[in-house]
């Protein structure tokens, strides 16, 4: 695929979204560093508005729309964080947001979308149902569709987290990010390689939903055949766009088990005293399982979000 976004798109995105987003903190843990034998820097997007990195891409897209494009509102389908992000960004711009959500989406995310003013349309928990209902909503309202990751503006927005991280800590040897649909890892890889080509960019994925790993290793886009993972934000497959970017820029994709994800999530809750969701724990698990040799190095991890249903914690 040609005409892929580059560092300049991410720099423009950061300028566009700075008035609307948080510059999230970068935290460290002495105990974690001792455990993995490296200096690790956690870019905490769990402290971003809506509690996840998704607000970066959504706000970049919403605020890049022309008045004509946005006049009838925006629409999307999402089970959680992207839904919240679009709803809040739309409210901040003063336009309606029509959100198609599967009926089995986490309760905490349904309530958050409604709280941000999103107009929710529920559907059956299948991709086909989501797309069908979304098409009906767009036909009825004329709203502008904002995909969750398959869009250059989304990718550029997500990359701003790594741009900020490397502004604060420019000498990192590695940057790790979870990968589901690939918007975050795409933006991460563009930002990192655009700033310094020697940085190693590592994607992290659940073993049970390893389509990105298989695609990266084979050089051919392969859809997910299973979506059973505790990391509910990583159940989607790469698109042609995100696969092209990741295949070009990333250095590796590493998978981890469900038990390792839960263990890593609990470690961060207990030792760092911050709430992260299972998807955020996937790259943490890569280091805790010693699946990447980072001894004596500096590694950044994008903590993608912290939206968790407290009634359904995975270790209960």
Percentage of residues assigned to helices: 40-55%
What's the overall geometry? Answer: globular
* Distance N to C terminus: 45 Å
Count up the domains: 2
Please name the CATH topology of the largest domain: Rossmann fold
Mean pLDDT rating? 95
Low-confidence stretches: none
Name given to the CATH architecture of the largest domain: 3-Layer(aba) Sandwich
Give Rg in angstroms.
18 Å
Description of the molecule:
The protein has helices at 7-17, 30-36, 54-62, 67-70, 81-93, 107-115, 127-141, 152-168, 183-195, 211-218, 240-249, 258-272, 278-288; strands spanning 26-27, 39-44, 74-77, 97-102, 119-123, 144-145, 174-178, 200-206, 252-256, 298-303. The chain has 316 residues and is of the alpha/beta class. The longest helix is centred in the middle third of the chain and has 17 residues, at 152-168.
List keywords for this structure.
45% helix, alpha/beta, six-stranded mixed β-sheet, 316 residues, Rossmann fold, 2 domains
Topology diagram in text:
Blueprint: H1 7-17, E1 26-27, H2 30-36, E2 39-44, H3 54-62, H4 67-70, E3 74-77, H5 81-93, E4 97-102, H6 107-115, E5 119-123, H7 127-141, E6 144-145, H8 152-168, E7 174-178, H9 183-195, E8 200-206, H10 211-218, H11 240-249, E9 252-256, H12 258-272, H13 278-288, E10 298-303
Parallel strand pairs: 2-10, 3-4, 3-6, 4-5, 7-8, 7-10, 8-9
Antiparallel strand pairs: 1-2
Provide a concise account of the structure shown.
By secondary structure, this protein is an alpha/beta fold.
């Amino acid at each position: 695929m040609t005409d892929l976004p580059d560092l300049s798109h991410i720099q423009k995105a950061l300028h566009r979204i700075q008035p609307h987003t948080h510059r999230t903190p970068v935290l460290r843990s002495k105990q974690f560093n001792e455990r993995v034998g490296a200096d690790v820097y956690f870019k905490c997007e769990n402290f971003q508005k809506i509690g996840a990195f998704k607000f970066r891409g959504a706000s970049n897209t919403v605020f890049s729309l022309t008045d004509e494009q946005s006049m009838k509102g925006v629409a999307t389908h999402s089970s959680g964080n992207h839904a919240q992000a679009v709803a809040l960004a739309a409210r901040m711009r003063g336009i309606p947001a029509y959100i198609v959500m599967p009926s089995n989406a986490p309760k905490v995310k349904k309530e958050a979308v409604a709280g941000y003013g999103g107009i929710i349309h529920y559907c059956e928990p299948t991709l086909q149902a989501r797309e069908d209902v979304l098409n009906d909503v767009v036909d009825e309202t004329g709203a502008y569709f904002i995909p969750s990751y398959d869009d250059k503006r989304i990718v550029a927005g997500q990359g701003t987290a790594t741009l900020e991280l490397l502004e604060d800590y420019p000498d990192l040897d590695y940057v790790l990010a979870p990968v589901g649909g690939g918007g975050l890892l795409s933006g991460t890889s563009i930002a990192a390689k655009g700033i310094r080509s020697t940085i190693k960019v590592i994607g992290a994925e659940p073993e049970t939903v390893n389509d990105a790993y298989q695609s990266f290793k084979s050089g051919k886009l392969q859809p997910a055949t299973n979506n059973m993972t505790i990391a509910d934000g990583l159940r989607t497959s790469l698109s042609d766009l995100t696969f092209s970017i990741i295949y070009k820029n990333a250095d590796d994709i590493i998978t981890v088990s469900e038990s390792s994800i839960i263990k890593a999530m609990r470690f961060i809750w207990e030792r760092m005293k911050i709430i992260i969701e299972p998807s955020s724990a996937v790259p943490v698990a890569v280091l805790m399982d010693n699946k990447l040799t980072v001894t004596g190095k500096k590694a950044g991890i994008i903590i993608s979000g912290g939206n968790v249903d407290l009634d359904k914690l995975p270790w209960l």
